[in-house]
Amino acid sequence: MRGPVTGDPLDRSRFPVDPWALRERRYEAADLGTTETLFSVGNGYLGLRGNVEEGRDSYAHGTFINGFHETWPIRHAEEAFGFAKVGQTIVNAPDAKIMRLYVDDEPLLLSVADLEEYERSLDFRSGVLTRELVWRTPSGKRVHLRSRRMVSLAERHLAVMDYEITLLDADAPIAVSCQLLNRQDGQDEYHVKDAAMGSGFDPRRAANLSGRVLQPSVAWEGDGRTVLGYRVATSGMTLAVAADHSIETTDAHEELTSVEDDLAKHVFRISGTRGTTTRITKVVSYHTSRGVPAVELVDRCRRTLDRVRDTGIEPVLQEQRAWLDDFWARSDVEIGGEANAALQQAVRWNLFQLIQASARAEGAGIPAKGVTGSGYDGHYFWDTEIYVLPFLTYTSPSFARNALRFRHTMLDHARARAKELNQHGALYPWRTINGEEASAYYAAGTAQYHIDADISHALTQYVTATGDTAFLGREAIDILVETARLWADLGFWRETAGAGEVFHIHGVTGPDEYTAVVNDNLFTNVMARANLRSAVRHLRALQERDGEAYARVLTRLELDEAEIDELSRVAEGMHVPFDDNLGIHPQDDDFLSKEIWDLANTPPDKRPLLLNYHPLVIYRHQVLKQADVVLALFLQGDEFTLEEKLANFEYYDPLTTGDSTLSAVVQSIIAAEVGYGELAEGYFTSAVYVDLADLHRNADAGVHVASLGGVWNALVSGFGGMRDYRGSWTFDPRLPADWESLTYRLTLGGAV
Amino acid sequence: MRGPVTGDPLDRSRFPVDPWALRERRYEAADLGTTETLFSVGNGYLGLRGNVEEGRDSYAHGTFINGFHETWPIRHAEEAFGFAKVGQTIVNAPDAKIMRLYVDDEPLLLSVADLEEYERSLDFRSGVLTRELVWRTPSGKRVHLRSRRMVSLAERHLAVMDYEITLLDADAPIAVSCQLLNRQDGQDEYHVKDAAMGSGFDPRRAANLSGRVLQPSVAWEGDGRTVLGYRVATSGMTLAVAADHSIETTDAHEELTSVEDDLAKHVFRISGTRGTTTRITKVVSYHTSRGVPAVELVDRCRRTLDRVRDTGIEPVLQEQRAWLDDFWARSDVEIGGEANAALQQAVRWNLFQLIQASARAEGAGIPAKGVTGSGYDGHYFWDTEIYVLPFLTYTSPSFARNALRFRHTMLDHARARAKELNQHGALYPWRTINGEEASAYYAAGTAQYHIDADISHALTQYVTATGDTAFLGREAIDILVETARLWADLGFWRETAGAGEVFHIHGVTGPDEYTAVVNDNLFTNVMARANLRSAVRHLRALQERDGEAYARVLTRLELDEAEIDELSRVAEGMHVPFDDNLGIHPQDDDFLSKEIWDLANTPPDKRPLLLNYHPLVIYRHQVLKQADVVLALFLQGDEFTLEEKLANFEYYDPLTTGDSTLSAVVQSIIAAEVGYGELAEGYFTSAVYVDLADLHRNADAGVHVASLGGVWNALVSGFGGMRDYRGSWTFDPRLPADWESLTYRLTLGGAV
């Protein structure tokens, strides 16, 4: 196991403790990639990385719109039947963050600027990113600058930003160039440097697209408004972005506008006088679609902008504050005790980024990096259901419902994929944007059939917590039944000595990707069993509640009583392997017969293992990328005794590298349950700081959304001891010694 | 199991029985791809597909030089550490076969020509491909044509061809355009149609190269000689081809020569008169190199051609005949009985193509398609060692030695690859041309570690049969030791109830590619044990024979007595799984616990399975692409009782699809041994006609070299009952009922 982090890993002279904001007091160019991620603002639909207003220096420019992607044919070096065909990559949307500043015609460039004061702050209650600094220009004039940036949580398509400039010493000409810049295809192309990655590749990062991606279809300006519209070359998606510009100043000024295919500029030239504060405001709207012509999207942008033009941005800021007040009132987690202020800040940053990743995803999933980076190509994984949805279900159930409805829209794709894989029912893609399997390495992708059970788990949890049986009966039951069908067809019955006929599931990969394509993966079998049981239970409940609706479901799904009985029989016949000698559950049939990886003697420069060893070498050993059995102990906790949990944790924990950020939070939860309090704290710290302290050295590619969600789980279910088993909620808190209290809020019952 | 073929599958009105030739009496365009393969001529270095002299119609033009390849970076859709990096693809060398004929300016085009007579014949004793036909031109003039083509077995770099033209009815202008044409990059580009393949891909075929591959560096003509020279763009290999042209006629004629980068033409224009026979001769030489400038290769071509210019082609034809007389004297296999003439012909075609694939390979391996096609990219696999080398070892040991020396030249590459895969010793690439692993799908490639044991097996067999201990001590022992080291490091000891410490090998793929990455694959373990034992045995023998040489080997390999003892201990501790219930050897640890594939209910349009099911679906079931345990029963036959062989055969045979052509020959051998005589015959027929009757519908991509070699094995070891176990040869023949006799020849003892 990777040694859990202890203590506060942040440099507090640079990032002072503040329970309600992430603040930065010193500009540093060395870790731009990370801080761009940390200071991202977004709403789950639109995300703006924390790039500086000036447009440079930058590590990775990023403006991401959830689900706005390009497709490309996956070329396999060696092709085989059923391999994923359609690659999907999130597109870097035109950059509207740019407000370049010139004083005496000299550009502000933070990396070389003489800064007398500097602070950047992301406020968790106002939802605004603010930068304030005093710049001493090359000619010695001091300029006070304050800029703000916000993506509206209340208005899905809206972002606002402003820039205040005050000359402190002397008059000077000022220019501010407000731009919309297509970086995806322009010269200033988006590019993640991978200097940190020695081995020259990193499968966790995004594939590059080649050729022009955004094809210009609209370029327009007038009345201080600039507009660009595009069509994505192959996927056919469309986008429009529009910006309104305004100025408040007593100084003389002029405005110039120009628009080209990849660049719209609105420039303010001000004859700045000492002491005068000039304020420039830029209001931006993005609209995207799967195929509506961009000109129509321009109309939508116009409507969004017109509303703000009428009122100014103050109401927008107030609305944001109110939205977040509401959010914190139902979602905050408080750790009691003065000594825990730093941790409190980290926890709130996690929760704030979590809601920024998910609030307005709506017709889309929640990407592994939210809308803060292009890591993992902007794809949706099981991260959403297992790591993020518990938080949404228990604090913002309507957002959880949206995420589950999105899976329902993908059901036909999942049915087709099951068929292609020779199975009945539905098989959800391991990674996707548009519903098609995009995992090019099936052993750690398509083979993770457990995605079906994960979705069903989240769905069951949502329905149980909210009582939203209407959604269940109308749509969601289809997911439960089709995934249950997959399991019944995928596995098979085999006579087992002493146990009669037992149901086995072969040839699957569990959550732990350091073992692939195995038989009877414990996690998969246990989760599949729960999937099957949930389908049967909810069918029976529906039958009792509303016979007509039940009949409609049977018809819609071509389902009959015999098949429902069979699903039940499969669930109860499911093989759950157990090793009597060790008193533990083998991760799979073969796991315990493998050679044990010598982690103690694996040098740090050989970590993470996936970047330093051939999969064959890794798969041959007992070594885990991430919790697998231990995750089952949490999600299906009432299926295991405490003694089993303890034995399993003690066996697997030392074999777990934590090379995945999905691991520490789970290890923390079970460590807390089985009595390893210090370990629980250590893993929790590793999770809560994974991005803030860049512990996995890839925060530059975006926040780790699963870890953000896992942090909430670790707080509520780990230290907070909350468990929910089919409508019964229990609480058995195990607080760290120096936590005076832990307060969390849950929303239960009451369908949304 | 695929039903074995019974009876004679050839249309004898078109392909008449002839024990010493393959003859074709009717031209057909429908199966051009197959007949181009069947009528190929080659010598293991140079191969010319049976394309018509006219250059069209053609299914796949092909001129292949063993090992002459281009490289390209393998792009994996999802990259991982240690994945193969360097793609290698055999290049279609400039085509020297072309002698286009025009009478009255009308081109001969067989697919539309009015043919009064037609016969094509590949003679196994003269080694010459002859075509003879009478063409009635559009204007009604009949022309008698006879052409011959031969690749010299005695002169590695030489091919000769001639064309005789006789106007039977009337005078007419005749033109013959003799060409050297770069088809790899020209407009008339080589392209295998894949109409037969419904699913749009076939991993058994070659990857395509894009961009110009052959970069022109020489283009010259003079004195009836044309020369072209090239450098391969990325691999840097070089090639020169030169042709001499001469004419014998009493008719008036002129000659015109032109040379461009991709085309050299030497045209004869003849004022043809009725009754006169005009003969045009083209003598061609190819030289290739890993990097010598093409101009230097031109000199080599010149020397080869000058020798023939002095003597004419008659001595070349005689030399060919003498070479083949010698070959048949030591290699022929005769099946007694009039009724078996057709089978006799098929057997000889197999042996003839086998020697055409291997005789002059020399510094190269023996590609899976010989030099008859670009299937499998021209790569070398284990096919050479397991399927072809027994034939060479027992009939042409010096060719076997060349093939094994080629593996020795790759040893450093294999050492580097072992290191990359985290192991000591040497790991040979599953598929390669230049020594680097080129298998882009590791589960059915790199994971086939058994390649190491296969090479050692062939080496051991060669040394035992020939007594060539000099080669062993000087070079080959290094292979035995380095591969043995790989096994000792790859596996591990585990306490096993009742058996003490047992040695296990995990995470490998056996010969059967319908199961991948398993633990304790029986074939691998048994072959690895033999590998380890052979290394120790030959070290000990060397120590006894020549203490100084032994000491040199220890120094060279940094080997000591303790390590040799450890190799021995590993061999004797090797786990050989056995299932007491079934009385059989499980193919691997998990095999018997899998669901059984329902082959009986798998429709023909879903065969072969690999083109119709995702690997995950196939791997999940008990179903075999090819013999696995059953192959071990043959290669390590003295390690199994007859009872075990019978039980294993009866268990695995019904599960074996035979989707690989490497399977039938092995099934035939063991069927013969365990008493399934009819099955043995059926499998043998399936193998001997695999190309002749295009049973796998991919003969167009080239001959199946492993099957060619397997046919000899099935004759000699199957029906002939020959076994060789460490220097003891036994013979226990089991002839089919209607075979009056079976005669085969072996060369034993006497180092080459």
Automatic annotation (TrEMBL), chains A, B:
Coiled coil: none annotated. GO terms for biological process: carbohydrate metabolic process. It comes from the Bacteria. Residues 348-713 form the Glycoside hydrolase family 65 central catalytic domain. GO terms for molecular function: carbohydrate binding; glycosyltransferase activity; hydrolase activity, hydrolyzing O-glycosyl compounds. The active site is at residue 513. Residues 24-290 form the Glycoside hydrolase family 65 N-terminal domain. Substrate binds at residues 382-383, 625-626. Signal peptide: none annotated. InterPro entries: 6-hairpin_glycosidase_sf, 6hp_glycosidase-like_sf, Gal_mutarotase_sf_dom, GH65_N, Glyco_hydro_65_M, Glyco_hydro_65_N, Malt_Pase/Glycosyl_Hdrlase. SUPFAM superfamilies: Galactose mutarotase-like, Six-hairpin glycosidases. Belongs to the glycosyl hydrolase 65 family. This is Kojibiose phosphorylase. It comes from Litorihabitans aurantiacus. The lineage of its organism: Bacteria, Bacillati, Actinomycetota, Actinomycetes, Micrococcales.
